[in-house]
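Shipment paperwork, digital attachment
Item: protein structure file
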Amino acid sequence: MTFMVLLSCIVTLAFLAVVAWALIQINHQLAAIGGTPESFLAKLRLGLRAIEKQTSHLPTLLEQTNSVLVSIKGGLPVLAGNLTPKSATGEKNG
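Attachment content:
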């Protein structure tokens, strides 16, 4: 009975050692991706922040553009009525 308890403890410790070793290896691999300021993740984060700052003014401009496009849309039926095959040749409609 004592032998089985001792063997179980040794196997458990060996298992925990393997898990700890694997976690250390994973940590080393992830450090290259995002652990330092020169890492790929840090460079990506810096680029995304720059894009966010450069495009932060777009929502207000898009609202203005949308209102202008709505007014243009209102005038398109009149324009379509004036554009006929005759108007392409310079002749007057009507």
